[in-house]
Write a structure and sequence with these properties.
Elements lengths: L4 H10 L7 E6 L5 E4 L3 E3 L5 H9 L2 E2 L2 E3 L2 E3 L5 E2 L1 E3 L4 E4 L3 H15 L7 E12 L4 E5 L8 E8 L4 E3 L2 E5 L2 E5 L6 E7 L4 E3 L2 E4 L1 E11 L10 H13 L17 E4 L16 H16 L2 E18 L16 H12 L7 E16 L8 E7 L4 E3 L10 E5 L8 E15 L3 H6 L4 H12 L3 H9 L15 H11 L2 H8 L12 H11 L1 H12 L16 H10 L3 H23 L4 H10 L1 H10 L2 H12 L6 H14 L2 H6 L2 H17 L18 H11 L5 E5 L2 H14 L3 E6 L6 E6 L2 H24 L12
Parallel strand pairs: 20-24
Antiparallel strand pairs: 1-16, 2-3, 2-9, 4-8, 5-6, 7-11, 8-10, 10-19, 11-17, 12-16, 12-19, 13-18, 14-15, 14-17, 20-26, 21-22, 21-26, 22-23, 25-26, 27-29, 28-29
Helix pairs in contact: 1-4, 4-5, 8-9, 8-10, 10-11, 10-12, 12-13, 12-14, 13-15, 14-15, 14-17, 15-16, 15-17, 16-19, 17-19, 19-21, 21-24
């Protein structure tokens, strides 16, 4: 099959000059002077007595893991002296360092116009048995691109510096008599092997690259530009078939190295990345395209088996082996071994997501969220040639498994036609897109802003718009003066993005397009949400302040709109959970609704409070599991005047009526075994209901097939009925034995006691004595 334009582009760029990921330079130690505070001048080559003096002023070295700085001798065991206590000089050192930096610039593939400089980081001393496990240096400065290790001459064995990248490895051993300088990229994993004899002493320096003007590259520019033109003019076809779609909106070319947000820039690209990116950037300009740099997350799923795995074992061909060996093999197969312990088969799937990109000039980066389709990406180096930062194996599970997931972090050059630039950036939910629309509106180009905004319509709803961009989106929506386009622009947001700071902008769009229009928009913001979402109602904490700000902005109708939407959402869940078992889940869910309900009541007007009270009165007594926690929250937070202004006295009286009725309920007669319950309406639930409703019958022996027993079990357990159920496995069908338990009586006694206690607390807080229907006497 003929290669696509993007595949040909990857091949063309793969012809860029190969460079090294690490390089070494040896130099004489004559003319180089080392001095350490607390020790004085240090003579080279090093001898053991001098090294022991260095150790005396050193401290155990730390290492970084994520944002933390840790000390663990099982990971890093070495001595460290900070750079402010170390002076490296002498007549030969400046010339030696300048020449070494130029040498490493060329060997590591930086542009000739780039200027490297080195900043001391630490003097490290490794004694016998000391080491540093595989790790990756953090980029301590925006301009940091690598690490320079200066090994001081000393007699020792072991302590090799081992550096890896893209499946390759380099091992460097220090000299007894000369200085050894090794430079490598910061994203290269490396380690120091244990020292066997003597001492290994090194000075580590951070390699920094000054921004270099992009070089005018020569190369296959015409061919690359033609590939780009063809890529953006040819209808796209998904990898797994299906109809052709519109031509791709972008091309994502994956680079080889890993970068941080701070370290990503056109002048700081490493090795072959620098030359390939410069070529692609020049070709893009020739083809009328724009380019940006991005950070990509790559996930690949491979068909894989453990090394040495015998597929015939799955079919029992080694039956003579005992079960213990099979168990051991299964543990090895299902365990999380090293990535190299598996043999890859076919690539099952891959995903690329962009999470950050720069502006075209390499500056002003921003977080994004953009899924890259398979027909939009290419690379010169496949990810399998690189080292994943994480991997996970799934063993064979009967109808799936034997797969290895690998994750990589790679930089990328993203290209799009200049005339499609706005839509290409906007699809990522880009802050830039909203800022550009606002700029056009501000300069009077409202028609241009509308046309640009309309180009976002095919994908804007599913874009990765960030909640913090709501204010910008509201201002742009108002400025467009186009109700349909404005509604489309606001569609991706959720109600929990709202804060009091948005009040003026909400009032402005409501004034421009009308409150009914805003009602349709906010209906989508409330939307269908997962009832189990942990922070679903966090936004209601800001609801009273938001409504107050809207009233100050002369938009009480908008405040009422939000309150009605919030109450509709809470009301639906309140009715659901109040009628749901088991009790443990019900209580937790109703308790979680208590604070949102309190905030709604605090901000509601008298009319809405009346609707809320009517709804609460129609609920079952289980609604107390929401209302009482709400009243306790309010009593802790508010003054007596605030309690009255929120209308909570009516809620307290409703709770008092219910609790009074529960507390005064006559104890059950000792011979009354009836249980009130309503099932699903099926014949089995009818039989169960008849047994439960009987005052005298405690036991039911019920011959039932398996499905019938399962249904009755589920009804009893879901409703938490005081009934035990045991299957007597004799005869056909088996007999389900149901027995009403003493819990029927103990539960009612506990309910009366708790109602009395809650009623006493209510009376002490709201002074309910004398209210109609409420008797606080127990």
């Amino acid at each position: 099959m003929a290669k696509s334009a993007r595949e040909r582009l990857g091949v063309l760029l793969g012809g860029a000059k190969a460079t090294e990921f690490s390089a070494r330079l040896d130099a004489p130690a004559d003319g180089v002077r080392l001095e350490v505070a607390g020790v004085g001048p240090v003579r080279l080559p090093l001898r053991a007595p001098q090294v022991k003096k260095l150790i005396a002023v050193a401290r155990p070295a730390l290492f970084g893991r994520g944002e933390a700085t840790l000390s663990d001798s099982s990971v890093r065991d070495t001595w460290q002296i900070p750079p402010d206590q170390v002076t490296l000089g002498g007549p030969a050192w400046p010339t030696l360092l300048d020449g070494a930096l130029e040498y490493f610039r060329d060997e590591l593939g930086f542009p000739a116009s780039a200027r490297l400089r080195a900043e001391p980081h630490a003097l490290l001393v490794y004694g016998k048995g000391q080491f540093f496990l595989p790790h990756q240096d953090s980029e301590k400065d925006d301009a940091m691109v690598g690490t320079l290790v200066l090994s001081l001459p000393s007699a020792h064995t072991g302590g090799e510096l081992v550096i890896g990248h893209a499946g390759q490895s380099r091992t460097y051993r220090a000299s007894r008599t000369e200085l050894g300088l090794v430079a490598f990229y910061a994203d290269c994993p490396h380690k120091v092997t244990p020292v066997r004899t003597g001492y290994r002493v090194t000075l580590t320096l951070n390699l920094l690259a000054e921004r270099a003007a992009p070089e005018q590259e020569s190369g296959p520019l015409d061919d690359l530009a033609h590939c780009l033109e063809q890529h953006f003019d040819t209808p796209a076809r998904p990898r797994y078939g299906g109809p052709y779609s519109d031509p791709p909106r972008r091309l994502v070319y994956l680079l080889d190295h890993e970068y941080t947000q701070r370290g990503l820039g056109w002048g700081r690209l490493k090795g072959a990345d620098a030359e390939r990116a410069a070529l692609l950037r020049a070709a893009a300009a020739q083809a009328g395209c724009e380019t940006v740099l991005a950070l990509a997350e790559v996930k690949e799923t491979w068909d894989a088996t453990p090394a040495g795995y015998d597929p015939w074992d799955d079919y029992g061909y080694d039956e003579e082996e005992d079960g213990e060996e099979e168990g051991e093999e299964a543990a090895a197969v299902d365990g999380a071994g090293a990535d190299e312990d598996y043999e890859l088969g076919e690539l099952i799937d891959d995903e690329i997501t962009l999470g950050w990109w720069t502006g075209p000039d390499g500056a002003d980066g921003e977080e994004i969220s953009l899924y890259v389709r398979d027909y939009e990406s290419c690379a010169s180096t496949p990810s399998t040639d690189l080292k994943p930062y994480d991997s996970q194996y799934e063993g064979y599970m009967g109808n799936y498994g034997n797969t290895l997931d690998r994750w990589y972090r790679r930089a990328a050059v993203v290209v799009w036609p200049r005339e499609r630039a706005f839509a290409a950036r906007g699809e990522a939910g880009s802050r830039w897109a909203l800022e550009e629309l606002q700029a056009r509106i501000t300069t009077g180009d409202r028609d241009g802003a509308r046309a640009a905004a309309e180009s976002l319509a095919p994908f804007w709803k599913g874009s990765g718009v960030q909640p913090g961009q709501l204010g910008s989106a509201l201002r742009v929506a108002e400025g467009l003066r186009a109700p349909g386009t404005a509604a489309m622009l606001l569609e991706p947001f959720r109600i929990d993005a709202l804060t009091p700071e948005h009040a003026d902008d909400l009032a402005a769009v409501a004034k421009r397009y009308g409150v009914p229009w805003l009602g349709q928009v906010t209906e989508g913001w409330f939307g269908a949400r997962n009832r189990f979402e942990e922070h679903r109602y966090d936004w209601t904490e800001r609801l009273p302040q938001l409504c107050a700000a809207l009233c100050s902005a002369r938009s009480p109708a908008v405040a009422q709109l939000l309150l009605t939407g919030a109450w509709t959402q809470v009301d639906g869940e309140l009715r659901l959970w109040a009628a749901t078992g088991p009790a443990e889940i019900r209580r937790a869910r109703l308790d979680r609704l208590s604070l949102p309900l309190l905030r709604i009541l605090e901000a509601a007007d008298a009319q809405l409070r009346g609707r809320i009270m009517a709804a609460l009165r129609s609920c079952q007594d289980t609604v107390l599991e929401c209302l009482l926690p709400m009243l306790r929250h309010a009593a802790r937070e508010q003054t007596e005047g605030e309690l009255r202004s929120a209308g909570l006295g009516a809620v307290a009286r409703e709770c008092g009526d219910r609790l009074g009725a529960l507390a005064r309920r006559a104890p059950r007669a000792a011979d009354d075994w009836s249980v009130a319950w309503t099932g699903c309406g099926c014949e089995l639930c009818g039989g169960l209901g008849e047994f439960l409703g009987s005052r005298s019958r405690r036991t039911l022996e019920w011959p039932l097939a398996k499905d019938g027993r399962r249904h009755v079990h589920s009804r009893i357990d879901t409703a938490e009925l005081p009934v035990s159920h045991v299957t007597r496995r004799q005869g056909r069908p088996y007999t389900l034995v149901l027995t009403k338990t003493e819990e029927l009586f103990t539960r009612e006694r506990a309910t009366r006691r708790q109602a009395g206690a809650d009623l006493a607390w209510l009376a002490s807080t709201w002074d309910l004595s004398g209210e109609a229907g409420v008797d606080t006497r127990l």
